Amino acid sequence: MLNIIDFKLYKAIFVSEGKSRFICKISYNDEILECYVPITCKLSSLISLDDKEILIRETTKAAKRIKYTLFAIRNDKDYLIVDTGFANHIIKAILTGNKNKGLFYPEQVIENYKCDFYSKTSKTLVEVKSVITAEQVLLIPNMKTQRAIKQLQCICSLLSQGYNAEYFIVAFAPQIEKIEIDTTERVGQLLAEFSRLGGKITCIKISLDESYKIHINKLIYSFK
Hints:
This protein is α/β, with parallel strands linked by helices.
C-alpha cells in the first residue's frame, strides 16, 4: 500500500463527456463545471460513466483554463484512477523503495532513447505503460500505437547492447485478473523478443481505497 497522494481530492458527480475527449462536465458544489480529462481517448469507450461519483483535483498547470482535473471514478467499494500519467508516480515510489535496484532518475536519454527511468548503477532502463479497462482479462495491445512499437524496438536494441530493462504494465483496473499478450500483433511480438533478450515484464493492478491509499497487486501475464 502506498500513501503518495500529496494533493487534495474533491468528490463530484460525472455528468457527460464533452465534444473534445479532454473535456467532461461535472456537478460540483451544485454547479455544472467543465473538467479536464487527462487521457488520450474517450473514457466512455473504456468504462461506464453516467452519474458516477468521481474524484477531482485542482489542475496544476498554470496554462490550463480549466480549474479541475478528473482523477478517479467510483468503482463499488474503491476508486478506479483515470489519470494515467499518475502511473509514473507509482512506479517511482516502487523503484525508490527497492534499494537493491539502485538509484533511478526520471526521463533519462540513453543512446538517443528517452526512457521513463534509468539507473546508471545497474544500467537498467524502465518503461511504464498504463491502461484503463473494465475487463477481467486484458489483451495487450489494447489499442493500435506506433509509438509503443518504436519504443520496444529501441529497448530491444539496447538490451542487445548490454543494458538491462524492465517494462511495467500498470492496469488501473481493480477487477482485472490477468493480462494476455497477443503475439499476432507487432507489440506482442516485440514484448516476446524483449523477454527473450532478458528484459523483465512486470504487470500490476492499481486501486484507490476510500482513504485515498493506493493498493498494488501483481498480475500474471502470458503470451498467446
